[in-house]
Structures are given as structure tokens and as C-alpha cells.
Design brief:
This protein is of the alpha+beta class and about 100 residues long. The protein contains 3 helices and 4 strands, in the order E-H-E-E-H-E-H. Helices cover about 40% and strands about 25% of the residues. It has a 4-stranded antiparallel beta sheet with strand order 2-3-1-4. The chain is elongated.
């Protein structure tokens, strides 16, 4: 068995995860798939070989997902977004109560 991790740009929610998992598990060489919108990743267990990022990009072109074997430089994780929102709310709170 061959495990491969791909990074995904454009995956935002649980529905995105389900869509990617269902579509990839239908590929003949794929044993299992675990997508994570929080981490912007898809982990694929293959019986053998690999799936190229070009093939993945083609498979999901309509959905707007882009795949890479390395993290995207401008990738913003869920945790980064939540931290930014927390800081903004904190600053607004200080402004209101001062």
C-alpha cells in the first residue's frame, strides 16, 4: 500500500471534503481517502503507484480545486482565520469599553 498526502486549494467545508472523498474513492487504484478542509489536505491510500496532481486538477477542474504535493505558500488555515477573527473581536471590545 502507498500513502500519499496532497495539499488542496479551494476546499472550505465538510461538503468539500465529502465531494473529494467520494470522487477519489471511485478511482480504481484508490483504497481510501481522508480529506480535511481544516488542514487543506487529502490523504490517499493507494494499492500501488500514485495519482499525479495534474490528473487531480483535471478531475476537479469544475469544482475549482487545485492540488499540490507541497503546501501552498498563500494557504490560510482555519486556525489562522480564527486567530485573526479573535484579535479583531478583542480590539473591538477594547474600543467599546474604553
Amino acid at each position: 500500500m502507498n500513502e500519499k498526502k496532497y495539499y488542496v486549494k479551494g476546499m472550505h467545508c465538510k461538503s468539500c471534503e465529502i465531494l473529494i472523498e467520494r470522487k477519489l474513492v471511485e478511482v480504481s487504484n484508490v483504497k481510501s481517502v481522508k480529506a480535511s478542509a481544516v488542514n487543506d489536505t487529502v490523504e490517499v491510500d493507494l494499492y500501488e503507484g500514485h495519482i499525479s496532481t495534474g490528473r487531480l486538477d483535471s478531475m476537479f477542474e469544475e469544482e475549482g480545486y487545485t492540488f499540490s504535493e507541497k503546501p501552498f505558500e498563500d494557504s490560510t488555515t482555519f486556525e489562522d482565520s480564527m486567530m485573526a477573527i479573535s484579535i479583531i473581536l478583542f480590539l473591538v471590545g477594547i474600543f467599546i469599553f474604553v
